[in-house]
Amino acid sequence: MGMCLIALTLSWQMLIVILQVALGLGAVIFVHELGHFAVAKMCGVKCEKFFVGFDVGGYKISRKWGETEYGIGILPLGGYVKMLGQDDNPANIAEQVRESEVDEGSGIETKEITGPDGTKFQVDKRSYLAKSVPQRMAIISAGVIMNVIFAVIFATIAFGLGVPIVPSIVAHVSPGSAAYQADIRPGDEVVAIGEKENPSFSDLMQNVTLGDLENGIDFKVKRAATGEVDEINLKPRQGSGRLAKVGIAPPRTLRMPKKDPVRKSSAAATADFEGGDEIIEVNGDPVPDYRQWQAKLIENIDQPVELTVRRGGKPPKGDIFGPREGGETVTVTVPAQKKYRLGLAMEMGKIAAVQENSPAASKGLQPGDFIDKVSYADDSPANPAIEDEVFGDPISLPLRLQELANENRNILLSVRRASSGSDGQQPSEEIEIPLRKVTWEEPAIGSADPLSVPAIGLAYHVLNRVRYVERDTPAAKVGLQVGDVITQAQFKYADPDRDPSEPLEFGADGKQRWPAFIELIQTLPADTKIELTFERKGETKSVTLMPALVDDEYAVSRGFYFMPVQRIVQAQTFGEQFQRGLQETTNSLTMVFRFLKKLGGQVPLTALGGPVTIAKAAGYSAFEGVGKLLLFLTMLSANLAVINFLPIPLLDGGHMVFLAWEGIRGRPASERFVVALHTIGFVCIISLMVFVLGLDLGFIDRGM
Questions:
Q1: 3-class secondary-structure state, position 234
Q2: What average pLDDT does this structure show over 189-199?
Q3: What count of other Cβ atoms lies within 10 Å of the Cβ of residue 419?
Q4: Taking Cα atoms as reference points, which of 530, 538, 413, 564 lies closest to residue 485?
């Protein structure tokens, strides 16, 4: 019975969301067509139809009031107003004239107009063609104007109700990224981007995606450790066919989602957690935010932790995303999370990035330098075998140095400097580097991320060529050897109902790199096998093996999933509501122009979305509340306004161009000229629709 009630509740919530999305998207189309309809009526034009959706094949729900048929068509991809003597295809000018032409003596009031070839016609005074060019321009532009007006209305109402936003607080930075090099750390908050104060994480992503990649973007960052605000210029990086990024991951709370609060086959899965639990203490010490949670887990990385969680409770009044109050507190113990390894030590690549204010930066290390060897800098055992065991695996090195940092130890790096010499390298030099204590995590977020070494403040590449194979490990048992080059990996899940993953390709920029692959292995379900394809002496071979847990390496994350940080932005007065609504609409309009300006270059074509993407985005917004949905509709209305006014035949902007030409010449453009331009515009629009539907339905890989 309980499960039935839950299912009914979820179904009811889903139904409400679907209805909200349908009404919202329908409203955007409705107000656009209402603009055309209202101004046409004011200009005395006879409107025969007013439809939301297209009545393809006559399938519709409609009713006629007066001279106009009002209805909803079966194809929900837009809407239209049918006016006497008007056709969305300007090539049908002759047909429009014939439709509007009136026989002498009919008793209908007429007006003389001039056709494309200069011929005079007597047409119904209430036809679209009988109206002056300025009147027809007003009718055509009214849809766009209504979209802008209602965008302001939607946004104004949204800020009155309250809009949830994700603030620009850092959870992680991507190793090697612009944020990483600027030494931005978890807990830091971006308080300004250019002229934008207190940006949301969505604002951050938009400004980075559409920003100046060459000269960089000005950030103001409030440091979590000191409370000081630093002014930083970050240059976003963009991979081929991808959006530009600075490498900042959005903030997280310590509250688990209602569904799937922890990852299966993880340390957290061994404890008794419930959806919605919120972690408030670790080993008896309060953890008010995700930054301090990371620090506590790192401090106890190889030990069980006792977690105090708040279960149940309610958010504060007026802030549904605030810390819960009431409920009960429960103590749960979570063991350490051992790492999965294959038993392969890969070759180290060049240094990819160096953090500002780090031990590595203080010693002059630079991208392109190559670390030949890492050893102790004091009287510790100097047996090469021991050093190789401790420092020889570039994947294990960051954790080994983190352990030494807790002992206040220094290390020696043998470094070959990048140079422009004949062989591109200089002889190795010995550099003693102090280690800093690490209280934050810098995991490989993207597939092409290098490996971060927080204890010294640099990131290096890890190659996909085997340096050595550890004995009695999965890799040794399947016969992998020194010098093998891994070219592909594919996960084969134990669950028979789950298909194998898409192959991961190792190699050039933008493809899978070894650090991110090792991070990915930690999240696999139990008993997942991995098929590795490799090259050995010119031959391509493959083996299948299963990762094994190791006793001396531990993961920081123990398998928890956390909800994003959200804040409610709500205006206190109507004046503030309207000001925020106007600003949001202006931002949305300018964002569309910036997006279109950089489309096909800085913004790949695969970033476009069609009706499926729009419906999904609207659904996600509706799940976050009416205010969020209204803000999405503001953005959609702004998009519709700008795109509809582009000078492309079939769109309102195309009609405006033809009307401007008619106003200059005193008669419509020739049919041949109009047909040629219309055909080009039609082909472009249909091609674009097919392309975005291909993206929506997954037939075209977005590759982002």
A1: strand
A2: 93
A3: 12
A4: 538
Q: Answer whether 294's CB lies under 8 Å from 225's CB.
A: no
Q: Where are the alpha helices (DSSP H) in 472-625?
A: 474-477, 514-521, 574-598, 611-623
Taking the C-alpha atoms of residue 230 and residue 220, their distance in angstroms, rounded to an integer, is: 6
Strands 485-492 and 504-505 turn out to be antiparallel
Residue 217 has pLDDT above 60, yes or no: yes
Distance of CA 666 to the CA centre of its chain: 50
Which amino acid appears at position 488 of this protein? Q
Return phi, psi of residue 349, to 5°: -100, -165
Q: Which residues contact 352 (CB under 8 A, 6 or more apart)?
A: 175, 176, 367, 450, 459, 460, 461
Within a 10 A sphere around the Cβ of 544, how many other Cβ atoms? 12
Distance (Å, whole) CA 351 – CA 216: 23
Rounded CA-CA distance 674/124 in Å is 24
pLDDT band at 252 (very low <50, low <70, confident <90, very high): very high
Which residues are bridge partners to 306 per DSSP?
A: 333
The pLDDT value recorded for residue 699 is: 75
Q: Which amino acid is at 543?
A: V
In Å, how far from its chain's centre is CA 73?
33
* Dihedral sign, Cα of residue 489, residue 495, residue 496, residue 502: negative
Q: Which candidate, 219, 220, 221, 223, places its Cα nearest to that of 211? A: 219
Quick one: the chain helix, strand, coil %, rounded to 5? 35, 30, 35
Burial class (CB in 10 A: 0-12, 13-18, 19+), 579: middle
Angle at 647 between CA 646 and CA 648, to 5 degrees: 95
What's the CA angle centered on 248, arms 243 and 253, to 5 degrees? 125
More confident of the two residues 320 and 615: 615
CA 15 to chain centroid: 26
Architecture of domain 343-546: Roll (2.30)
Spatial contact of 111 and 129, defined as CB atoms under 8 Å apart: no
Beta bridge partners of 452: 459
Token match 């640099």: residue?
458
Domain ranges of the chain: 2-45+131-160+618-696, 343-546
Query: Over the stretch 345-397, which tens digit does the pLDDT of each residue have?
Result: 999 999 999 999 999 999 999 999 999 988 888 766 555 555 666 678 999 99
Distance CA 585, CA 582 (A): 5
CB-side exposure of 92: number of CA atoms within 13 Å?
11
Predicted pLDDT at 1? 38
483-531 pLDDT per residue, tens: 999 999 999 998 888 887 889 999 765 578 899 999 999 999 888 999 9
Distance CA 124, CA 662 (A): 19
The span from the CA of 519 to the CA of 446, in Å, is 10
- The one-letter code for the residue type at 71 is G
Q: CB neighbours of 76 closer than 8 A, spacing ≥ 6?
A: 25, 26, 52, 53
Show Cβ contacts of residue 492 under 8 Å, excluding neighbours closer than 6 positions.
500, 528, 529, 530, 531, 544
Determine the pLDDT at residue 123: 79
Query: Virtual CA dihedral for 540, 545, 549, 551, nearest 10 degrees?
Result: -60
Is 244 within 8 Å of 237 (Cβ atoms)? yes
pLDDT in tens, 273-322: 999 999 999 999 999 999 999 999 999 999 999 999 999 878 777 666 66
Length in residues, the chain: 704
